[in-house]
Amino acid sequence: MNAPDRFELFILGDGEKKVTWNLDTRVPNTAIFTFNKEDHTLGHLLSSRLHKYSYVQFSAYIIPHPLLPSFDLRVTTDGSVSPKDAIVQACRDIVGELDQLSREFTKEWELKKIANTESRN
């Protein structure tokens, strides 16, 4: 088969970068970030998070080609924060929320195990 190995869709090769970015010279305070070996899951998550910040005027992502595992995220801010700093803040907030979700899930799972153990006795 000519299909690439599945791991090539998410493991970076030698010299590949996860994220590259360029300033958009046509629109002030705008940058385009290219996320390599990622898909709609991260694109939508980042774009949605960026919409929650008052200093972000625009954020959207596109998948240039459905067979290539990458997406471009365009971010425009009001100038009080750079687009790069907005992305970094969004990533920090997302990681914090996922950490909280993990702790809550683990706590509930342990309580369920305790409740099942007590009901058997």
UniProtKB/TrEMBL annotation:
<dbReference type="InterPro" id="IPR037685">
    <property type="entry name" value="RBP11"/>
</dbReference>
<comment type="similarity">
    <text>Belongs to the archaeal Rpo11/eukaryotic RPB11/RPC19 RNA polymerase subunit family.</text>
</comment>
<dbReference type="Pfam" id="PF13656">
    <property type="entry name" value="RNA_pol_L_2"/>
</dbReference>
<dbReference type="GO" id="GO:0005665">
    <property type="term" value="C:RNA polymerase II, core complex"/>
</dbReference>
<dbReference type="InterPro" id="IPR009025">
    <property type="entry name" value="RBP11-like_dimer"/>
</dbReference>
<protein>
    <submittedName>
        <fullName>RBP11-like subunits of RNA polymerase</fullName>
    </submittedName>
</protein>
<keyword id="KW-0804">Transcription</keyword>
<dbReference type="InterPro" id="IPR036603">
    <property type="entry name" value="RBP11-like"/>
</dbReference>
<dbReference type="GO" id="GO:0003899">
    <property type="term" value="F:DNA-directed RNA polymerase activity"/>
</dbReference>
<dbReference type="GO" id="GO:0046983">
    <property type="term" value="F:protein dimerization activity"/>
</dbReference>
<keyword id="KW-0240">DNA-directed RNA polymerase</keyword>
<keyword id="KW-0539">Nucleus</keyword>
<dbReference type="GO" id="GO:0006366">
    <property type="term" value="P:transcription by RNA polymerase II"/>
</dbReference>
<feature type="domain" description="DNA-directed RNA polymerase RBP11-like dimerisation">
    <location>
        <begin position="31"/>
        <end position="103"/>
    </location>
</feature>
<dbReference type="InterPro" id="IPR022905">
    <property type="entry name" value="Rpo11-like"/>
</dbReference>
